[in-house]
């Protein structure tokens, strides 16, 4: 009688696991077929986004890109390496209305940076 219970439980567990796996696979495959949503292209989404009125809320976060560089081989030398110039320039070109600041590791000091209280709390 005992072997029959073990076989029944094993078959039940295997069927439950296979059913769960099949439902997960069916849900995943469903992502790649037609759905009830509106069919829209990336271009149409961009046009719709650009045609809306600007956000009336005030901008709270300033548009500043801070780049901090520390030369681990020669800490007294704070000049950016030449291979960083292309990356730096691409950041400037892609964000023309943003302010761009570069500073060395010595300049960065938590006492010289205005931090919000929630950020200071996370630092401790």
Provide a descriptive summary of the structure in words.
Keywords: Membrane, Transmembrane, Transmembrane helix. InterPro entries: Glycosyltransferase_domain (IPR051706). Its main location: membrane. The protein is mostly helical and 124 residues long. The protein has 2 domains: 1-52, no CATH class; 58-123, no CATH class. 44% of the residues lie in helices and 10% in strands. The chain contains 4 helices and 2 strands. It has helices spanning 2-30, 42-50, 85-94, 117-123, and strands at 64-69, 99-104. A two-stranded parallel ribbon has the order 1-2. Helix 3 (85-94) links the parallel strand 1 (64-69) and strand 2. The longest helix is centred in the first third of the chain and has 29 residues, at 2-30. The N and C termini lie far apart (63 Å).
Q: How are the SSEs ordered, and which strands pair?
A:
Blueprint: H1 2-30, H2 42-50, E1 64-69, H3 85-94, E2 99-104, H4 117-123
Parallel strand pairs: 1-2
The rounded Rg comes to 28 Å
Largest sheet: 2 strands, parallel
Give the overall shape: elongated
- Give the SSE string: HHEHEH
Identify low-pLDDT runs: none
- Total number of beta strands: 2
Query: How many structurally independent domains?
Result: 2
Distance between the termini: 63 Å
Strand order of the largest sheet: 1-2
Tell me the strand percentage band.
5-15%
Coarse structural class: mainly alpha
In percent, how helical is the residue content? 40-55%
Residue-averaged pLDDT: 80
Q: What's the tally of helices? A: 4
């Amino acid at each position: 009688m005992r072997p029959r219970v073990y076989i029944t439980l094993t078959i039940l567990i295997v069927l439950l696991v296979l059913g769960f796996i099949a439902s997960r696979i069916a849900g995943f495959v469903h992502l790649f077929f037609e759905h009830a949503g509106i069919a829209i292209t990336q271009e149409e989404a961009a046009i719709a986004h650009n045609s809306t009125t600007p956000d009336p809320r005030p901008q709270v976060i300033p548009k500043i890109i801070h780049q901090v560089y520390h030369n681990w081989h020669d800490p007294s030398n704070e000049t950016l390496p030449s291979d960083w110039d292309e990356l730096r320039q691409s950041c400037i070109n892609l964000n023309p209305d943003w302010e761009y600041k570069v500073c060395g590791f010595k300049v960065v000091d938590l006492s010289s940076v205005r931090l919000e209280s929630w950020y200071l709390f996370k630092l401790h």
